[in-house]
Amino acid sequence: FWLDRVVFLEHVISAERIYVDPQKVEAIVNWVQPTSVTEIRSFLGLAGYYRRVVEWFSSITAPLTRLIRKDVTFDWTEECEQSFQELKMQLTTTPVLALPDNSENFVIYSDASLQGLGCVLMQYDR
Questions:
Q1: Where are the domains of the chain?
Q2: pLDDT truncated to tens, each residue of the chain (126 aa)?
Q3: What fold characterizes domain 5-100?
Q4: Which of 69, 94, 99, 110 shows the greatest Cβ crowding within 10 Å of its Cβ?
Q5: Using an 8 Å Cβ cutoff, are 109 and 122 in contact?
Q6: Can you give the residue ranges of the Reverse transcriptase/retrotransposon-derived protein RNase H-like domain (predicted)?
Q7: Is there a contact between 42 and 51 (Cβ–Cβ < 8 Å)?
Q8: Helix, strand and coil percent figures for the chain, each rounded to 5
Q9: What pTM does this model have?
Q10: Other CB atoms within 10 Å distance of the CB of residue 65
Q11: How far apart are CA 61 and CA 100, in angstroms?
């Protein structure tokens, strides 16, 4: 039992924080540019597991998500490449999640647009 941290569901959990297991992110870092709809689906499926730690995940992946629609022909554009690289960068620099302090107040921030919405529950200095 005397573990200072444990890997669980591809996250490292310690007494102070929760963060993405760096070994699991390696597959995303080394992913080459998708050349088919199947490869995009596979990449988005893997990246989607971490969507809760990537700010603006839906906005970042919008160009890639458009390519998997049936009424769209596969055309890898500069916008798709930027989306692909931005998502990889976000996944390798994910924030560290701190455990809440129930004696402190919580703050909720929210935002919405025509493409998506998001909100964050946080505490100052956590």
A1: 5-100
A2: 577 888 877 778 887 777 777 777 788 788 999 999 999 999 999 888 878 778 899 999 999 999 999 999 999 999 999 999 999 988 877 565 666 788 889 888 888 888 888 877 888 765
A3: Alpha-Beta Plaits (3.30.70)
A4: 94
A5: yes
A6: 76-125
A7: no
A8: 40, 20, 40
A9: 0.64
A10: 15
A11: 29
